[in-house]
Amino acid sequence: MRGVGAGVGVGLGWVWEQGLDLLSITARQDPTLELDDSFHPYWTISVMQPSRGYTGDLLTGGQYPVNINGYPTRWRATLAHFATFDKNTMFVPGHGPIMGLEGVAEIRSCFDDLAEQTEKNFKAGVPVEEAVERYVVPDKFKNYRQFSWGFAISRTTQQLYAEWSGKPIEILNY
Hints:
Blueprint: E1 2-3, H1 13-17, H2 22-28, E2 32-36, E3 44-49, E4 52-60, H3 72-82, E5 90-95, H4 101-123, H5 128-134, H6 149-165
Parallel strand pairs: 1-2, 4-5
Antiparallel strand pairs: 2-3, 3-4
Helix pairs in contact: 3-4, 4-5, 4-6, 5-6
């Protein structure tokens, strides 16, 4: 077992819905468990096997990251880590369809856009509340699902501002 981060939430509902027996699959294929706290303040367990990764909510296909209690910089670093996997790796996200590295790249791009727009506002001295309202969804993400503006855009913006200001990130208990 190797740790990618540090802090147990598992978003593997899709695996169970498909009738897959995760324990049997992983026992046969020498899995690596990656423990990560970039998303939840508790551990998120990603099960990585040769050519397959079960990532829980660290990856979500076709939707903005729901960032109730995430740590955006570390979460983005985790996505960058996933991008280093073999080109044939398939990822089973917490929500959305199974994806390859192109899906990881798309989600990284969405997260990066949010961080870049937020950083411009932060450096310009724009108050966090106004920065949330200034975020513009790029055309390429207009069809992305948003669980809610508050949990996707607002929370990530607030958390980035706190991080860049050296303040603790407020944890919500949901």
